[in-house]
C-alpha cells in the first residue's frame, strides 16, 4: 500500500455507495436498485430501538474523512485560477465537454466527477503549455478515458470518445501515452474519495425512516455534478461538498427547510461548520438564486466545421513538472521545447 492511500478495504468500491449500504440496516440493495433504503426498522412496534452504528462503520467514515485530502488538489490550486495564472474559462470548457460526453454515452455521474478530479489533480502538479488549447483537451480526453475504464462496464473506443464538439481529434496511441503520464502524476491513485462517497451516509443521518433517502442521494448527486464546472468548489473537501449538497436537496422537501448547515457538523468527525456554510451558500447561489446552471449554455458547439487530427510526440518537452520550489508560469519555455520536438498538426478533416 502506497503512502497516503486509504486502506485497501476502503477502496473496494469507487462509488462508495455500496459501502454505505451497510449503514442502512439490512437493506443492502436499496440504493443500487433505486429504492429508498430503510435506516431503521418499523415492522414490529415492539422491537427495541436501533442500536448505534458499529465501530467498524464509524471507522470507515472517519477513514474517508482522514484520507480525502489525498485526493484533492493542493490548497493553492484555486488561488492560481483567482490570480489568472490558470485559465478558469478553459477549465470550465473542458469540464463542459466531459459532461457532454457523459450525457451522450449515459455514463454514471461518478465517471464525470472522477474525470474532472483527475484533471484538477494533474494540473495542480504540472503546467500545460498554452498552445491553441490542444494540451488541455488531450488531458481531458485522457482523464475521461481513465475514469470510464474505472467505472463503466462498456467503454467506447478512444476515437468514439472524442465526439463532436471537440476541436481536435487525437490518435489512440497519443491518448494512451497521455493516460500513462496522468497515471504517473497521480501515483496510480484513481480510486478517489469523492463527495458521492458520503451521500448515502449523510442522507441516512437526516432521514432515519428512509422515506426520502433515495431522493436525497439522487438530487444531491445532480447538484454536485451540475456544479463541478465552478472553480469555487475547489476550496472545499469532498465531505463538505457532500454535506452541502444533501442540505440543498433537503431544502426542496416540504417542511424540511428548517435544516441548517450547522446541523451537518454533527454528522461525523471532521466536518466544520464554517466550511459547510460557505459551500452551502455558494451552492444556493448557483442552484437556487441563479436557477441552476443550464448545461447547453456553456457547452461548445455541437458541430464544428473543422476537426484537426493531432499527432503529438509525448516526450519530455510536452509537459513540465512543477516542483515545490519551482516557479509556475513557464509555459513559454515549454511551448518552445514542444516546437523543438516537432509537434505539429498532421491532417485537417472537413
From TrEMBL:
Protein name: B-like cyclin
Protein biosynthesis found in the keyword field: no
Organism domain of life: Eukaryota
Matching PANTHER family: CYCLINS
Family: Belongs to the cyclin family. Cyclin D subfamily.
InterPro entries: Cyclin, Cyclin-like_dom, Cyclin-like_sf, Cyclin_C-dom, Cyclin_N, Cyclins_cyclin-box
SUPFAM superfamilies in UniProt: Cyclin-like
Amino acid at each position: 500500500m502506497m503512502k497516503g492511500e486509504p486502506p485497501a478495504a476502503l477502496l473496494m468500491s469507487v462509488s462508495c455507495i455500496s459501502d454505505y449500504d451497510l449503514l442502512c440496516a439490512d437493506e443492502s440493495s436499496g440504493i443500487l436498485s433505486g429504492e429508498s433504503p430503510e435506516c431503521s426498522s418499523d415492522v414490529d412496534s415492539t422491537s427495541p430501538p436501533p442500536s448505534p452504528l458499529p465501530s467498524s462503520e464509524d471507522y470507515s467514515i472517519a477513514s474517508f474523512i482522514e484520507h480525502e485530502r489525498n485526493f484533492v488538489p493542493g490548497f493553492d490550486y484555486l488561488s492560481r485560477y483567482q490570480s489568472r495564472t490558470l485559465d478558469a474559462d478553459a477549465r470550465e470548457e473542458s469540464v463542459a465537454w466531459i459532461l457532454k460526453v457523459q450525457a451522450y454515452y449515459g455514463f454514471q455521474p461518478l465517471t464525470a466527477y472522477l474525470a474532472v478530479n483527475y484533471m484538477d489533480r494533474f494540473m495542480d502538479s504540472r503546467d500545460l503549455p498554452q498552445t491553441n488549447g490542444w494540451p488541455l483537451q488531450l488531458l481531458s480526453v485522457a482523464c475521461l478515458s481513465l475514469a470510464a475504464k474505472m467505472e463503466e462496464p462498456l467503454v467506447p473506443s478512444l476515437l468514439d470518445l472524442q465526439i463532436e464538439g471537440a476541436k481536435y481529434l487525437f490518435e489512440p496511441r497519443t491518448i494512451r501515452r497521455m493516460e500513462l503520464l496522468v497515471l504517473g502524476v497521480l501515483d496510480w491513485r484513481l480510486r478517489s474519495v469523492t463527495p458521492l462517497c458520503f451521500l448515502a451516509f449523510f442522507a441516512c443521518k437526516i432521514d432515519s425512516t428512509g422515506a426520502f433517502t433515495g431522493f436525497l442521494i439522487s438530487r444531491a448527486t445532480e447538484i454536485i455534478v451540475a456544479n463541478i464546472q465552478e472553480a469555487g468548489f475547489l476550496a472545499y473537501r469532498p465531505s463538505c461538498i457532500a454535506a452541502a449538497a444533501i442540505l440543498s436537496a433537503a431544502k426542496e422537501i416540504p417542511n424540511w427547510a428548517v435544516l441548517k448547515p450547522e446541523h451537518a457538523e454533527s454528522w461525523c468527525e471532521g466536518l466544520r461548520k464554517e466550511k459547510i456554510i460557505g459551500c452551502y451558500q455558494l451552492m444556493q447561489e448557483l442552484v437556487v438564486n441563479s436557477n441552476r446552471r443550464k448545461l447547453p449554455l456553456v457547452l461548445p458547439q455541437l458541430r464544428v466545421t473543422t476537426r484537426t487530427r493531432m499527432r503529438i510526440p509525448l516526450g519530455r518537452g510536452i509537459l513540465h513538472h512543477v516542483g515545490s520550489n519551482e516557479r509556475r508560469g513557464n509555459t513559454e519555455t515549454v511551448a518552445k521545447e514542444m516546437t523543438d520536438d516537432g509537434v505539429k498538426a498532421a491532417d485537417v478533416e472537413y
